[in-house]
Amino acid sequence: VINEIALADFQAYAEPFVRLDIIKGNLNLQGKLAVQQQAALALRYQGDFNIDSLHTRDQILNQDFLKWKNFSFKQIDFNLQPLSVKIKQIHLDAPYTRFTIKKDKTTNISDVIVTAKKTAKQAIKPKLKPVKSKAINYNIGEIKLSSGQADFSDYSLVLPFVVAMNDLDGKVNKVSSHKSSKMKIDIVGKAFDLSPLKIKGELQPNLDDLDIGLYFNSLPLPLVSPYMAEFAGYKIEKGKMSIDLLYQIQQRKLSASNNVLIDQLVLGEPVESPNAVDLPLSLAIALLKDKDGKIKIDMPLQGSLDDPEFSVAPLLWDTFLNLVTKAVASPFKMLGALFEGEDDLSIVDFLAGEANLTVLQIAKLDKLSEALLQKPNLSLEIKGRAFTNQDWPKMNADALLFQLKQLRANELKAEGKIELAEYIQLSEKEHQRLLADLFISTFPELAKRSFFGTPELTYPDMGEFYTVADNMLTAMIKPDANKLAMLSVSRAQNIARYLLEQGHIKQSRLFILDGDVLLDSPTETLITELSLKVQ
Q1: pTM here?
Q2: Measured between alpha carbons, how far is 83 from 205 in angstroms, rounded to an integer?
Q3: pLDDT in the model for residue 127
Q4: d(Cα 191, Cα 161) in Å, to the nearest integer?
């Protein structure tokens, strides 16, 4: 029996290896030791072993490094020949550790460990063949953790990041060197003293077979803001994150499911960071959020542990970046993914010269409005368009009709009757009479009235009179830029009105932009373009 050996008395022996101050700690042994010198040294120890009240401090940062209330090994059976150890229980009571990444990306652990310096003789000493060490057979019934704490700090980021984990409790069962053995892990705790965390599952010591889950619930995102600032260029104003990481390994093949739920994420002020991605994150977040303000991301992974190119963390980051990039590059495709079909919700087609919505476009707007209701942080910009070479041939027929109505309004005015041209309805007879009068006065060499007053063409082989008159008078009317501009505006207005009245989208989310009048449509259809912005 050996009790209360003060570890601080061995400080001098530790100095060549670690830069740690041993503040206190006691070593206790209770058991039987048998030693026998034969062809090889035979040694066996059976009993208990523990170190209590350990407290060490980092000599570089002058901070607590590692400490615990008690670290005990129960019912040890250690045998040197053959090399084996059996332990019924290992209990780590109230442990604490600190891990710090400094500004230069070195860690407090690298500071603490003293690297041996080679002497000149050691430098020229020939290499010897390595001696194969004997594999140790071990069997541990249970490793128990009670009231654990850990501090993690990362000062290499643009903003310092500090997280404390506490109330770490749990156990690991059936820890064995046997190839077919599987250790079972069940650990719970808290992060930031607020958010529950859990590690649960089983795995083989050589990691050939693994089935484990890591669960973090309601992590306060503003507290992990430094990592967001480093890679996104923004602080986080508000939000919570829950993560379920489910990893399985079978025959060295990894299959992982990374499920992330982000609730009520709000970006804060921008932060300059050379590592930040150049993406419109506000738009991506608005697209990814559902109507309740939640973002659900599933990032499955598969790969072989024997593949030297396979690495989990970079793949996860690439997967996330690809998701964000696709969202902002094709926002309407992401909205359209909420429905079946391949409708492009970013455009609305119109018939030539028309501003009214067709049945097909109404169906498209119904989908768009439903999607917008699920993405309340998005607003819609509508840019109407008209195309001279496609729209005007349909519009100038109306322009000719208006000219005829104006002629009739002038006749009525001469009779003492005042009536606006746009309100006049022409009968077929009046329409033909006015059309003939206008054509004859415009092209007197091509038409005249007969003795009986009937209009006729000078050259009958030109065709039927009213058809020729209509075509030639219509062709004379030059494109009216104002009317084309009004058509582009009317198209945008009709889209906005439908989304407002039938789609129930708030007026504050709908913006009509200044319209365009282009010479030709860039596509086979006459489109009005829509774009998405963050409210």
Answers
A1: 0.70
A2: 18
A3: 55
A4: 13
